[in-house]
Amino acid sequence: MKPYALIAVCLFALFQSASRAPAEEYKLKSADAPPKGLSDEMTAILSGEGHHIISPEGPLCNLWLVNSLSSKDGFKPDLRVKYPMPMGALVGVLEVKKGPEFTDFRDQVILPGLYTLRYGQQPQDGNHVGTSELRDFLLALPIEDDDSSETLDDKEELQLISSDAAGSSHPAIFSLLPPEEQDEKSTLTHDDDHDFWILQTSTGEDKPVSLRLVVVGIGEE
């Protein structure tokens, strides 16, 4: 084999090996009861057991979901909207831990602290063409500006308060992927194609709703 051909083969093998390298492992454990700093009203509607996500560098965040999610009457999913919640419905509470940097789906840094997570949809305007095939997202809002369990149905207020969480002009968002059949236990899995870490879980007793939330990962611009 000629030297340049041998080099090409070696480089190809090296590239293939690198592309198959395992992603840094994130782990999922149970979290304790909801943290201090929440109103009694908020604490009362959250599940007593949360999700504790640990990055390779240490604890990353905790997430508690509400006991029961609001759903639109007669909702039917379509190609771009898969979830039945009304705009601004409270889905849970996020606690960002001190330690490894935590970012949202747009790679915006979310500082340590407590945030509500509310359901929102990507606007259908020229600024968002081609950014995502799906419109389902969760928006993070600083708890000091949003401590009510009621639905926040004012879209402009929802986006404005959420932008404070990201310290920018754009809301702090986390992508929701189409729900799948839920196992008995919550799982955290890796999407190799997009380098997403996806929390698969469910909430609600009478009418359980499955959620697939990208907790670690950045969308394409």
Can you tell me about this structure?
- The chain is α+β, with helices and mostly antiparallel strands.
- Helix content is 15%, strand content 31%.
- The chain has helices at residues 3-19, 40-44, 155-166, and strands spanning 27-31, 50-55, 58-65, 90-96, 113-121, 136-142, 172-177, 187-191, 196-203, 209-216.
- A ten-stranded antiparallel sheet has the order 1-2-3-4-5-6-7-10-9-8, with helices on one face.
- A hairpin with a 5-residue loop joins strand 9 and strand 10 (209-216).
- The radius of gyration is 19 Å and the shape is globular.
- The model is unreliable at 4-22 and 126-131 (pLDDT under 50).
What fraction, in percent, of the residue positions are helical?
10-25%
What is the tally of beta strands?
A: 10
Mean pLDDT: 86
Secondary-structure element order, N to C: HEHEEEEEHEEEE
Major sheet details: 10 strands, antiparallel
Biggest sheet, strands in spatial order?
A: 1-2-3-4-5-6-7-10-9-8
Query: Pairing-aware structural class of the strands and helices?
Result: alpha+beta
First-residue to last-residue Cα separation: 43 Å
Count of helix runs: 3
Roughly what fraction of the amino acids lie in strands? 25-35%
Rounded radius of gyration (Å): 19 Å
Give the total of domains. 1
Give unreliable regions as ranges.
Answer: 4-22, 126-131
Morphology call: globular
